[in-house]
Amino acid sequence: MRKWSKIKIIILFLLPACLLYAVFAVYPVVKAFWVSFNRWDGYARNMAFVGLDNFKNIILHDPVFWGSFKNTFFLLTIPGIITLLLALFFASVLSSGIKGDKFFRVTYFFPNIMSGVVISLLWSFIYNPSFGILNGLLRLVGLEELTRTWLEPGRVIPALVAPIVWCSVGFYMVLFLAGIQNIPQTLYEAADIDGASSWQSFWHVTFPLLWEIISIAIVFIVIGGLKVFDLVWVITSGSPTRHSQVIATYMYQKAISEGNMGYGTAISVLLFILVLIATIISMRLLQRERVEY
Amino acid sequence: MITNNQLYPLDEFLETNAYGQDKIWKETFYPGLLDGLKYNGKIYGIPTDFSIWVIWYNKGMFEKYGWGIPKTWGEFLQLCENIKRKGIAPLAFQGRYPGYMAGTLEALFQRIGGIKAVYDAQNLVPGAWKHPAFLESAKKVRELIDKGYFEEGFMGMSHTEAQMEFVRGKTAMVACGTWLKSEMSNVLPKDFRMGCFGYPQVEDGKGDPTVVQVGCAFWCIPQDAKHPELGADFLKFLTSLENAKGFVKEKEALLPIIGSDELLPEELASAVELVKKANLTWTTKIGQWYPEWQTEYTNAIAGLLTKELLPEQFVEAVEKAAASVRDNPNIVKHHIEYKGEGIQ
């Protein structure tokens, strides 16, 4: 009897959160899956069932979708690798007790708390060809030939590497810092006694013990990179041309700008499947022997 | 929404008296605009937020250097060359929104080919978007780019950034709607004066050189409204002459209500003059009717502006997009009626 009343109370406390989750997270996802099998403009009262037509059209007949896939993949790997390397570097340097490490931790982390929209706006001013800082600096040091129109349709996707790295490094740096703090100092002392250089102590002590955290970081980067939307949307002023689409912006354009809800939600379903597969693959590949100490 | 029967037809209300005036409601608006949301003979929208597409120029700069308003395309090109020689960029452009070039492309299309060619294109007549006048218009835009008459780096600027360049005096002109002043109101220097002119006549073009492109937004009433007559009453009040005048004065924006333009600031007054002198005003509707065509159109314009597409390839791409809409039985088709080259 007492066990049952305990369970009742537990359910009572869980109910509000579960309800909210069901209504605002689960229901839209299920509805989206249903809409993707239909043709609908988002306003009409009725939808027309078309089965797998939307998916067929996207996968087989839509070069813009595959272009957006390529761009998404690019924005996930290049900034991702740079972010990881820089974060590891900063974390290991800032945990070695140099002067001013607290200042740098705050400075490097700061961009992470800014919203994606603010970051994009900031960088679109930096990249402005006429009064932006980047071209201004290049002109100042006499490198005028290197000035470019950074945000024109052909260049805007590579131009996003800098803002993405800039706003992500801080987060992963903090993650790795926390991991490094957990490594007992005695291991470093032992390595030192054995005559290890700082690179060797990083590679043989820090890196293996940090591996679990690094693999979690990689999974985050993969998921976030696949879903990137706000940075691309704002820096292209919400008008990405066919060269500058990523999967999420293309989905928005199809579903909302063009009113082709069925097609757009089909893209989002494909994105969902993509993220799922990518996560499973990453987690499998990254499983290494946990180093016990 | 109209084709899905979600909006309430407003004809019965339009035939009744307007608020506070002696006319019927229908006649208080600039002629032709009520056709904007007309479908199957019924009107579904009340026009509001009126804008005119013109070329703005920096009055102070033009006076300083003694430049005049060009009357022909040849004079316009010469003007751009003169401006460029003074080290100023002739034209600003809102490159991150390639769609802004549509105003210029379509104005030149009309100046060269006449309004019937433009309407044919809006009506998706086969081959209409490959009309030699449209190709010529694309070539002229390409010529402006090749001669460097657009500010350097224009493809990377958003609309506010490009318009800032105009307002800061780095460029002499910008093609934009009459919303320009109120959009840039919080960064306008105190002594900045701007004026506007319509697109110049193209030598041996067939089109009437007074024709002006306008646009407006609409108020609608949903089909399921319990009291559509109350909604109509409110809209009548909103569009009454007194309210309209107040709106225009405060927001420095135009409304399509006859008589609301009494107290306009100098810039907007000159734009309204263009409309009053125009033999015909027209609105582009095809982007609204077929949003998937609009996307392809914008992509094609971006290709033209970045020189990725030659003018011939550009018109080919636009015609292809029009054909795919035309051949798609699932898309409801709309129609603009051609009533003659210079008739209101």
Written description of the protein model:
The complex is a heterodimer of chains A (293) and B (344). Chain A is mostly helical. Chain A has one domain: MetI-like fold, CATH 1.10.3720.10. Helices cover 71% and strands 1% of the residues of chain A. Chain A has helices at residues 2-35, 53-61, 63-94, 101-109, 116-126, 133-140, 156-159, 161-181, 185-193, 198-227, 230-235, 247-257, 261-285, and strands at residues 38-39, 48-49. A two-stranded antiparallel sheet of chain A has the order 1-2. In chain A, strand 1 (38-39) and strand 2 (48-49) form a beta hairpin. In chain A, helix 3 (63-94) crosses helix 8, helix 3 (63-94) runs antiparallel to helix 10 and helix 10 (198-227) runs antiparallel to helix 13 (261-285). Chain A starts with a helix and ends in an 8-residue tail after the last helix. In chain B, strands 3, 4, 5, 6, 7 and 8 form a 6-stranded mixed beta sheet that branches. Chain B is built from 14 helices and 8 strands. The mean pLDDT of chain B is 85. In chain B, strand 1 and strand 2 form a beta hairpin. Chain B has helices at 11-14, 59-65, 73-85, 101-113, 115-122, 132-146, 159-167, 180-183, 228-238, 241-251, 266-277, 286-289, 291-305, 311-326; strands at residues 38-39, 42-43, 46-58, 89-92, 171-177, 194-197, 212-219, 281-282. Chain B has 344 residues and is of the alpha/beta class. In chain B, helix 6 (132-146) crosses helix 14. The interface between A and B is medium-sized, with 28 and 31 residues.
